[in-house]
Structures are given as C-alpha cells and as structure tokens.
Design a protein that fits this description.
mainly alpha; two-stranded antiparallel sheet; about 5% strand
Length: about 325
Amino acid sequence: MEFSQIIVALLTFSLGFVLVRANTCIVVNTKIAIMDRNYSGWAGIIFVMSWAALISVALSLFVSSAELAVQFTHLGESILFGGIALGLGALVNKGCFMGSVSRIGCGNLNYIFTLIGMGLMLLICSEFTPDIIPEKSIVQKPLSDHNHVTWLQTVFFLSLAIFCFWQLRHHRRRDVFTLLCVGVIGGLLFGLKPDWTYSGLFIVIWQWPEIFADWFIELSAALVFFGAVLSAILKQEFKLTKLDPAAVLQSFVGGAMMGVGAVLIPGGNDTLLLLGLPHAASYAIGAYAVMGLTIASYFYVRKRTAAVQLSKI
C-alpha cells in the first residue's frame, strides 16, 4: 500500500463528508433556478468548479506527475447522447451522481439502487459493448511548458470564483465554505488520480480477484459513502428511509440511464465538474451543457404547463 493511495482514500472520505453539507446537485439547483429564478445554486456549482480548476494548477507547482489534460480519441455524437442520458437519468432519479451520494449518506436507502443500476450498466457496457466506450488518454503538461493560454484560464477561473463568492454571499448562502471544500478536495482527488470514480467499485468487485493488485485504491472509493454517513450523523440529519418499491424502481432506472451517459461521455457529472470542466476540456463543456439544458428544458416545460393550467382556472 503506497502513501499516495492513503492520501486518495482520505480525500475520498473527505469528499463524501462535505457533499452532505453542500448543495451541488444539478437537478435541485436547476429546478430552483427555473421555478424560482434563484441562480445562487448554479453560482455554487460554478464556484466548486472554479476552485477545482485553481487547485489543479496549484498541484502542478508541487506535484511533477500531476495530470493537467484529458483527451479522447473520438467523441462526436456520444457527447450529445451521453449528455441527454445523464440529464434524463438525473431527472428520473431526482438527483445527480453527487446528489445521490448525499442522500445515501442521509439514510435514504432507495438511492442505493441508483448505484446498482449505474454499476450494472457500466459492467454490461464494459463487458459486452466495449466498442462504444471512447478511448481516453491523460496528457501531462508540466507548468514550465504551459503557454499564455493556461495563465489566462487561471485568471478566468479566479475571476469566476470571486464573482460566484459575491453572489453566494449576496444570497446569504450558508454553505459557502463547504462548497469551497468540495472544489478543493475534488480538485486534489482528481488531480492525484484523474481516473478516480466511485463507480470503479463495481468493476473491481466484478473482476475480483483478477485485479487484486489494485483492490485498495478502487475499494477505497466506498469511503465516500462512509464520509457522507458520518457527516449526516454529526449534523443530526441521518434518518433511515424505508424502501419504497416505486422509489426503488425509479432510482434503478435513473441510475442505469446515468450509467449509459457515463459510458458515452465518459464520466458522470462529478467527473465533468471536478476534472473535465476545470481543465477546460471541450468534451466536458459540451456534455455538461447538454445535460444542463436537458434538465432545464424539463423544468421550463413543467413551469409553462403549470402557468397555462392556472390561467384556465
């Protein structure tokens, strides 16, 4: 067991801990933005992404092996279909990847089936349809080799962080510090291990014991849930929710749809927010925009429908 693996495990646990205390769910925040015209939730999401970006640059100053770019050999229409699948899956599930972790931590057992549906779809795609998975390559770019574009990106993300901080304070959000922690911890986690994802837990269980050498770093992904549970208990928000057949089915289907999206892009909204967008990767910008527009379109239609029905009364 290497020291870097222990660091990744601690960061994973910490990420789960702060997710319970910060509203980072794209479904919840988009609903508030469309229905109530309150955009502070999206300011929080951008705030998290900006700090993850700043941390990725800071890492390059001290960690020579820190990866600063993610590239894919072929994407195209998979961005469109993957973004739509993530958006629709999050709507069906009533929560995105990060929102599901928070709800599991608070004791909602129905969302365990979100992970089961997602993991099952990831396994099916990796085992039987590997040709639809885009090929990913991590490209190292030491800071000494960076051009002025990288520094412009740094200034851009710093400006975004300051603007979003002002917006969050203006709306008197109480989770500003925890949002900052999500960005910092997420930036460190994905900076040290760009291929990290708690969905990898399903792969190592499925292929046990063939990939025994990597068991610790993969199984440590489960610590994100232990961190979330401990955070909810300390916050006195942990309450076991009884399994409901309808909610279980809804979570399973939503998770499966998000699993398909994660395969096509690849990566869920957590990977896009904490890795792809901070590196200004074109695939992440496109996929996250499609996912956000899919979710926003649903709530916009729902709001307009409700307004029309109200006018007929």
